Amino acid sequence: MSPATENKPPSANARGPAHVLVVDDNSLNRLKMRKAVEHIGHHVDVARNGAEAIMMLRERPYDAVLLDIMMPEVDGFEVLGMLKSDDILREIPVIIISALDDETDKVVQGIELGAEDFLPKDFDPVVLRARLNACLSRKWFRDRELEYLERVKKLTQAAGILEAGSFTPGDLKLDDLAEKADALGRLAIVFRGLAQEIYNRERRLDRSARTLRGALHVLIAGVIFGIAPALGRMAAGADGYSPLSIVIWANTVSAVLCIAIAAARGGRLRPTLKDMGFLGLWAITIGCLYQFLTVLIAGHVEASTIALLGSSRAFVVFTIAVIIGLEKPSLRRTCGLGAGFAGVAAVIIFAGAGAHDDSLHWSIAALALPLLLAFHTLLMARRPTHLDPFATVGLMMVVSVVPLGATAAGSGEFYWPQPALGTIEIVILVLGAATAIALALALDLVRLTGAVFASQLAYSQTLAGILWAMLLLGETLSPEAWGALALVMVGVWLAEPRSAREEFRARIQVSKPSKSTVGDHGG
Description:
By secondary structure, this protein is mainly α.
């Protein structure tokens, strides 16, 4: 279509029948105009007075109005004024009807108020056709012009979203515009395609970067947190300290260290009432139950066995993720889960084989630790995002000390640390610091990659726990335990947890030309 053709007003016949409203208080005049307009080929509604006309105009769209001026109560001027003051209705063309002999001044007033044309009451049908169709052609041309401007506005808004530097393809809202088979439609297709290409490229880079950072978090946090079983076993046999008092002082060290780091980083330390619900649940799960059970169970089960059992945490999280739809099930992944749980079962069996005490029961009880960690991993996805990770851990540890301290005081198991820095005091300090740093890293890992990816902490924590047990306690793994560990690793490989989560908004830097550059090009 040539530019000349695009700018030419469309004929009334080319658009099909129009919807015309006839307004006249005289029934004979309404009937005459209705018949004449219907004969031209348009649809007609009639209004008996100005008030009825206003109501009908607000209820449905019309393409033109034939309006009598002289009507009782609400006259034509009021109807015309309402139309032209309304942002939506003002584009409807109005042809006023007059007797001409005594209403010439009123016709002039109506034209000045915005009427398109006029007709005498004894109009010629040929004149009516010509004037009505001319008004409709101009109106439809204006509609097309407004539609064009609205589409240009959408493109401009899409460009503004891109210029803002943070977007998803859906933010541009160009799908309807791209369906039009004209120049703007083709431009919208190109624009949307470029935005999608930028988004896909930035998403790939972002996911790769977050996955790499996540892997480093997994490695570091696992190595730090993996020391807990070995420290718990070292502390379990300490004279004068109960597991409860050890946990209380370790949590106190964690709280002080995290709050100090958060304050130095300028992190927010004022939780809301809603935050306290999360902190309380998290404190019970990790600060109270997990910390206490780790020290308690470590007195009866080797640290390396506890570390091996800890690998089931990842499989539990992954199973829950499949159930709730975060991960897709498949035969390979089902086999991986089966192999992983079989490896965990083998650890329990071999730990209790030939034992002369109740170590088998304690090994089974140790399964509570990875279950608590699995719940803790999923719970971290609900963390207060406005709080610094170290502040969140510090506040949680403060909350955990309250019920632990009350329990210890009531049971007579609360002990003050010795002034001299002995082995048990060093264990408490290291356990508190390791817990603080590992949990803060885990919180940041969940924010960065999601809970499913973060569950892979279990693998690095398992391997680190075995190494710490060998280094600090001189423990060794039996061939059966190594076989169980290999079975667990096969399960990890088959289950293949996904990389960093999908949620992403592209962020691009759009450089704006300086005034000097614009001036140089303008010259």
